[in-house]
Amino acid sequence: MELKNKNILITGAAGFIGSNFVHFLFEKYQNPTITVLDKLTYAGRKENLEGVLDKIEFVKGDIKNKNDVNKAIKDKDIVFNFAAESHVDRSIEGPEKFIRSNVEGTQVLLEEGRKKEIEKFVQISTDEVYGSIKEGSFSEDSNLNPSNPYSASKASADLLCNSYFKTYNFPAVITRSTNNYGPRQFPEKLIPVLIKKAKNEEKLPIYGEGKNIRDWIYVKDNCKAIELVSKEGNLGEVYNIGAKEEYENIEVAKLILDLLNKSYDLIEFVEDRPGHDFRYSLNIEKIKSLGWKPTIRFEEGLKKTIDWYDEKFG
């Protein structure tokens, strides 16, 4: 499926990864036909679509609302579902919003997409659905074992997509990526929090002893992989997306401080959160077999990210 001649719906595209995906499509294709459906929560901002907002159709709405979805999906060929509540700490404090948005909202999209007989539905998921792994890496066939309400809601959405494929032959495909970072990320996630606080000479809060390990992928690399899966991915299948750039949280904090010429004295260890997964790691051979590979190394991506925040916020 080539996207250049398709009517595209992107949900949650005023958020971090979704907005980067929109910008990526405009870089790759000449005037793609894109509709954005976003309810503009605290993390979804129209400013993230600056430069392309006048070239898309923007529908302010909620994926849980059938009328909003119908308005946005009416003549679409392909749907990319980025819309999600995604902050683990917030899901621990209040799980209901995550279940309603990530599970019920996905089901509404699937059902309306089925009625409209769309050509493809790309569900944007996360490595967190697999849970934690001490050694080795999860494959697409690994069991789902989420540790918190956020990852449980995303696992549930993935299972709904799988059920629609099996029951209705619905054209769904799922991507599961490792931790994204880069421009336009709302400053509640680790890297933008650390950058902002370090620049302001504030304490950098690190959970526990900072030994938790994550694989970090620059957001544009993930966007390239998602676009490739939309064209080449087999229906009903899952594709892991990672960069093989694994770092302890304390290493991330120190690298950011080094890049900003700040003292390690700014690091402050705080009480660990409940159910904090120790390590995420994905086997990415399947997505590489489609011809994709990560191109941005972690330190290079961090420099790009810091430069973006400097340019945007000073």
| Total beta strands | 12
Our estimate of the beta-strand percent is 15-25%
- Rg of Cα set: 19 Å
The total count of helices amounts to: 10
Instruction: Characterize the overall form.
Output: globular
Low-confidence parts, pLDDT < 50 over ≥5 residues? none
SSE run? EHEEHEHHEHEEHEEHEEHEHH
In the CATH classification, which architecture of the domain at 3-177 and 218-242 applies? 3-Layer(aba) Sandwich
Class from secondary-structure proportions: alpha/beta
**Largest sheet report:** 7 strands, parallel
| CATH 4th-level superfamily of the domain at 3-177 and 218-242 | NAD(P)-binding Rossmann-like Domain
**Highest CATH level, the class of the domain at 3-177 and 218-242:** Alpha Beta
Distance between the termini: 41 Å
Taking strands numbered 1, 2, ... along the chain, how are they ordered across the largest sheet?
Answer: 3-2-1-4-5-6-10
Summarize the structure in words.
The structure is a single chain. Helix 1 crosses helix 7, helix 4 (95-116) packs parallel to helix 5 and helix 6 packs parallel to helix 8 (249-259). The chain is globular, with a radius of gyration of 19 Å. It starts with 6 loop residues before the first strand and ends with a helix. It is 39% helix and 18% strand. It has helices spanning 16-28, 66-73, 88-93, 95-116, 149-168, 190-199, 219-232, 249-259, 285-288, 298-313, and strands spanning 7-11, 33-38, 57-60, 78-81, 120-126, 172-177, 179-181, 204-207, 213-218, 238-241, 246-248, 267-270. Strand 1, helix 1 and strand 2 (33-38) form a beta-alpha-beta unit. The chain has a domain at 3-177 and 218-242: 3-Layer(aba) Sandwich (Rossmann fold). The chain has 314 residues and is an alpha/beta fold. The mean pLDDT is 95.
